[in-house]
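=== Structure Prediction Worksheet ===
Name of assembly: unnamed complex
Input type: mixed (protein and possibly other molecules)
Chain count: four
Listed entries:
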Amino acid sequence: MPVGSLADRYRAVRARSEALCQPLSVEDYGVQPMDEASPPKWHLAHTTWFFETFLLKPFATAYQPVDGRYEHLFNSYYNGVGEPYPRPRRGLLSRPTVGDVMDYRTLVDRAMAPLLDREDEEVRRRVELGLQHEQQHQELMLTDLKANLGFNPLRPAYRLDLAAETKAAPPLGFSDHEGGMIRIGAEGDGFCFDNELPRHRVWLEPFALADRLVTNGEYLEFIEDGGYRNPAWWLSEGWATVCAKGWQAPFYWRERDGAWLEYRLGGEAPVAPAAPVVHVSGFEADAYARWAGCRLPTEFEWEASAVGLDPNAGNFADDERLHPVGGNGQLFGDLWEWTSSAYGPYPGYAPLPGALGEYNGKFMSSQLVLRGGSCATPRGHVRASYRNFFYPADRWQFSGIRLAKGSEPAT
Amino acid sequence: MPVGSLADRYRAVRARSEALCQPLSVEDYGVQPMDEASPPKWHLAHTTWFFETFLLKPFATAYQPVDGRYEHLFNSYYNGVGEPYPRPRRGLLSRPTVGDVMDYRTLVDRAMAPLLDREDEEVRRRVELGLQHEQQHQELMLTDLKANLGFNPLRPAYRLDLAAETKAAPPLGFSDHEGGMIRIGAEGDGFCFDNELPRHRVWLEPFALADRLVTNGEYLEFIEDGGYRNPAWWLSEGWATVCAKGWQAPFYWRERDGAWLEYRLGGEAPVAPAAPVVHVSGFEADAYARWAGCRLPTEFEWEASAVGLDPNAGNFADDERLHPVGGNGQLFGDLWEWTSSAYGPYPGYAPLPGALGEYNGKFMSSQLVLRGGSCATPRGHVRASYRNFFYPADRWQFSGIRLAKGSEPAT
Amino acid sequence: MPVGSLADRYRAVRARSEALCQPLSVEDYGVQPMDEASPPKWHLAHTTWFFETFLLKPFATAYQPVDGRYEHLFNSYYNGVGEPYPRPRRGLLSRPTVGDVMDYRTLVDRAMAPLLDREDEEVRRRVELGLQHEQQHQELMLTDLKANLGFNPLRPAYRLDLAAETKAAPPLGFSDHEGGMIRIGAEGDGFCFDNELPRHRVWLEPFALADRLVTNGEYLEFIEDGGYRNPAWWLSEGWATVCAKGWQAPFYWRERDGAWLEYRLGGEAPVAPAAPVVHVSGFEADAYARWAGCRLPTEFEWEASAVGLDPNAGNFADDERLHPVGGNGQLFGDLWEWTSSAYGPYPGYAPLPGALGEYNGKFMSSQLVLRGGSCATPRGHVRASYRNFFYPADRWQFSGIRLAKGSEPAT
Amino acid sequence: MPVGSLADRYRAVRARSEALCQPLSVEDYGVQPMDEASPPKWHLAHTTWFFETFLLKPFATAYQPVDGRYEHLFNSYYNGVGEPYPRPRRGLLSRPTVGDVMDYRTLVDRAMAPLLDREDEEVRRRVELGLQHEQQHQELMLTDLKANLGFNPLRPAYRLDLAAETKAAPPLGFSDHEGGMIRIGAEGDGFCFDNELPRHRVWLEPFALADRLVTNGEYLEFIEDGGYRNPAWWLSEGWATVCAKGWQAPFYWRERDGAWLEYRLGGEAPVAPAAPVVHVSGFEADAYARWAGCRLPTEFEWEASAVGLDPNAGNFADDERLHPVGGNGQLFGDLWEWTSSAYGPYPGYAPLPGALGEYNGKFMSSQLVLRGGSCATPRGHVRASYRNFFYPADRWQFSGIRLAKGSEPAT
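=== Predicted Assembly ===
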């Protein structure tokens, strides 16, 4: 997707973050519906902080910070930069106001302008990283906002003009893959995160991957079969979570008069049986797969299956649905797909030097890898080697289930 | 203070709530800095809900609720009305917006107009209760807002035009009171809350009450004497709180370069030695009193001392300081004064009938009575028999310390 | 009850603590079923620590502590002595063993012997305090042990030879008291705790006190009327507790096949309708009283009613029932009776000097006074002015409900 | 290690569990020092429950359970058998007494006798599983007991007659391994757990593995370099744990007068610089490795290095040290070695059928694999393919650090 000059891309990405906020009322910018979900205002400021901290301060001569206190306030988790403002308190900052943050963006963008044309490899690398970072936050802005609006008893829509579409769900099929020695990780000259490297060999046993995501209708069968009441389907931690949180259905479902409703960014609507089930945790994905007599794929199986496909062909945020459409064929877009792989370093993994090394590597414990991008991901942001990661109990992301099976061990 | 017609007073009180919000940015209306402190928007809506629920629904023929969901959303704690929206989540409601809430106020005010002139004793009683209720929330709006702004690392001021004044603190003296049989509780025809009744007799031993509040300078001596590190001064629960929360000074103090700063609604400023110490908990007040060789007064000692004084003569919110001025003489205004009395029912206490009975009575456990009103209380709202109540660990209110001593037991 | 020489009484009280443990297996000595309830072994050691700390160390020349580490280990809450071992971890001390603790008792008793005959007023005062202290712990030993055994799924009995008896419950009547000026607090030369002093005057409005405790049968009506599901009957904190803890009945009740069983120290048995309801919290007592159209008495009403009665005439631990018998007439024994009075200092209250001052005074917040002693209290330990105190949510003590009503306010 | 008949081995393993308890006082059998660590009595009962539940009930005709309530009480986590008694409350069971549990063991052993000679493949498989299970609990009994005694302020020794020995630590060296296609998982006819299967191929990049464990002396350098105060070395969750728990050194270390002491099962002793550092969490192991410029090995690198070594040659529980000796060469024994591998299923993994399927598989989330056995593991229990697993924050096991490095990625 890197088309146009770096300066052009900078302007486009930065503008998109602001465009995403157009439908918001001022009040919406500040709400943090849960510890993990940040307010839109914070996302707008933090992405700006990223450029200020990693580009302007080290590379722009005589740059004066917009406000010295922002270094603390909008630091997410970079201990190398200083102690971050506590994450669970991001929703308590009525000041700086939305206007102040927009000014912050403007001033930083203005100061960035000269850097964008500079022929400095490190500068260009960091600008690219900053843009990829901002794209990640564009998706988080949507998922965090969905939690804000979706758990408001008024269930307001983010936008009423979103395309609403569900493709028919064909019978579930599986594609066989013969396994063998495959190459895993990013290749080529394009941008990738440090966690996609080094490219390396992995031996795979034969496996089969489902040709579409699990649908709401299928997931309802699991619910109606008592799936949430039977510990036999669940990992031990998963069952503890089900009991502690009282889970009975996906995150945004609620039952009204015997029917299931689902909150979407376009508003609340009946659950569509043919649409992919969305906002399930890794524990739910794993339990469903076990109930269905299958399992989740590993991240390597997923990547082996995705290599060669067009990563920009699916349902992405640019399609202005912000909800999965289903149908079959496409591994990219629609929903992030839970894998059974714990998020860890590839052999020989080396994080970026300095504080930027905290970007990815320090989260390599207790999380699972998700693959493929979603209907809230900017088109062009993901690729076959792209690794997203969340805790197995998380379910506020656009996450779904693709089944795998049939790995016949060769001994 | 009831001057003018009920309709006039209604308009004046309602207008004042909105005037208090004039200095706010839209972002400030939504923040809930801690579970106990509600956002300004919520206060504006809940006080309106009170009139809608207890006046319009039962008494205004053909009244149509502004939004049926507000009954749940803006119910504070009246289980008799229905299950309230959870208090700790009040800060998560970006919708209804500030504009929506202002519309709610306008529509309810419009519907209230005919009721205000009606010659119905119950209606008039409830309107009066609603106005007193709104005045209480005007003070809470200020204290809750102070917590919002005061714990923002940017320490923004609520208003920069507040009068800043500290009177000289005369040497601490005590006024003797001979005790004996006194009458406690509200008398006369004016408004009072149910918890001020029935008026009844209490026998008091002789006592002496300090003629001014404890100052910052005096409280600093306690700090410098290791007051926060010595369990000998503290109630057992107080010491547990000091340890658990790491208390080392009053709520809004912080040390910078060896000097103490204090956040005020006018902004952060050096602690003024002569000004009354403010934002101390009941535990701190009690510990200080013990350290000083005194004790806190009982609520009856306080009331016995206050009878006959002009309750409107002190430093109230109308004086636009929103900070205590100190000096001596005045029991009313400046700061709510912690008493050693547990908040409980007077002999023969009867709560109001119906859901309104939940207004006061159900909080009669584990709290202490505070007396006298503060610099954030509307003038005319308090009287000698007025009982405020908070948990002994609470310190975000404008609360201070008045010492007592010398009760010689007569056996 | 102080009969015989101080030395005789010392031996008798000390021996009784050990006799209470006769029915135990070694395993029972160490269990701490909840944070508030200590293991029997700890009680045996702590009461010994009290004599070692407050008598032997200051008064016995050349006394060598049995084990220097016990000062920390068996300190309950006397910060003046040093930092106590954390209370919630008392059940984690497998060492010192029961045998070690018994040796500790023996060695301290031996060292105490010379002091018991010394004609030193302060020594005699402290010995008496130590004995009263040990009697209090004898009751706690039984209530804490009941929690241990009662929440063991095996429901083992403490003793199988306890007298099991329930008197018929006469119709509920009320005794009128005209109120007026009464004297409250300990009088005479006998032992009393500092919290019973100074004796002072209190003015009482007329009231009526129930002539017996509330029975299981009556309490069942409250349950069956949905008492635990209707917030209207509860204080706000009480209702929060009911919801958070899922209370549906008194502490030791459980439903089996549609019938209520109750754990007693003699084993599990069907709930006897005529027996007094026991192991209810202050919140439950208050809610029941409100449901019954009555209220709880104040501690002064209770004391005014109890003056002149024989405090040793009721059902006490010496009667070897360890369960209430009911019937009417008797204010003392059977069950501690919740009052509506917050536990606080009497006018002119002065705690004992030094670390002993921590005995009572520092608990004067957030607790309620209970009066009268129980079937687990040693006979002779209580009197009309005796003040016990627990948090309103506590229910593992032998606590019950006596109703009051009818205070006609005289203005 | 399976030598002798199954019946012989049954008697030997069962007897060893009891022998491990010989040094205990009765009081020690009941203590649960933390939620994860069970009392010795519970281990003795639960291992017996295993035979009763999975052998006697299904296979012994006319078997009558010793006590029907034990099914609930001593079920660890087998939801398929019924709802287990809550784990954090295991230390609250003073009954059944130690004697009762010993009787339980005797009665079950007696009933098991005929089964041990039966020629039934499933019976023999389950007996073997039960013995392996009991061996695992023998190690847990020691580690849990260590937590009990080690956190008792008296620091009592488990045994005073343990061999105390530390070998000299040679300079740290690394053994190169060329990687390539290796076979992972159990092979041969001997017993293995389901999580060691299926045996399958894994591709390894070249790597180098340290030839001995990290020593206390080396770990002290990390501490003295501020390792516990610098977030740069830690995984994000690890740093959060360090801060939340206040970690400053390994689990059983404490500083006294400037020197580090370490609690061992033989009592407290100065930290020996040459001995392997023990009782570090996975987070500490990972942070140390990063600080040292290395990394932890993967479980596959470990297994590839261990194949062909004698798994019974190291320092095991049978050597009666119960503490690591260090020196070099040996991958087995001394300490469980943290790997960087998340505990997950091998390709084609199938749990055992029925409730026994809950043995291993349901824990495959958020845990790390440890390899090699420890000084508390019974000799003969482990092998190259053996996978132990704990949460990365756990540190009460005998866990240590072996460094790896140098995986040069081949692309």
